[in-house]
Amino acid sequence: MIQSNLPYDYDALEPHVSAKTLRFHYDKHHKGYVDKLNKLVEGTVYADLPLETLIGRARDEAKIDILNNAQQAWNHAFLWESMAASGETQPDGRIKEMIESSFGDVATFKKQFRNAATGLFGSGWVWLVQDGDKLQILATGNADSPVGTHLTPLLVLDVWEHAYYLDYQNERARYIDAFLEKLINWKFAAANLRETGNTRAA
Ligand code: MN
Description:
Number of helices: 8
Strand content: 5-15%
Order of helices and strands: HHHHHEEEHHH
Distance between the termini: 35 Å
Oligomer: single chain
CATH architecture of the largest domain: 3-Layer(bab) Sandwich
Radius of gyration: 17 Å
Structural class: mainly alpha
Helix content: 40-55%
Strand order of the largest sheet: 2-1-3
Largest sheet: 3 strands, antiparallel
Shape: globular
CATH superfamily of the largest domain: Iron/manganese superoxide dismutase, C-terminal domain
Bound molecules: manganese (II) ion
CATH class of the largest domain: Alpha Beta
């Protein structure tokens, strides 16, 4: 049985994400994917797998309905952790150095992330991921997720309309800016970094 948890109160991200949005997003959308997944896997070989293992297996076996709901369950759990009530607005230490070596500086990273998130057509997710000793911005459509691939997710933004429409209506760019400037949990992103050893090619 896959569970879902919201790691803070519904009003923790106000004023950038309202309690009303978070209530719908967590109680209806996230929980909806989790409930659907649990129903789909009941009595199957998937039922007792940890979520990441389940995603890898569903991907390998092209069980698309299970894969979509499992990725949405994982992506949302990762999303809650990617945002912090206290909103540490700047990265520091190793992750800052990797942003600078990968994008030039933090401002350029934010600009590229913003472009990826405003430019993603329809529903999806925008990620900061680690690929060896480099960081990349990755946009994925619908439920797609880098979890279980060679890329390590560091943080994610949900750009499905249900994530922002109650607060920002059609103004996706304002929601993205609030995430970039006020909400990113850089401690969480930094904690997801993998050791790269040295600069040897993988
Ligand atoms: Mn969502």
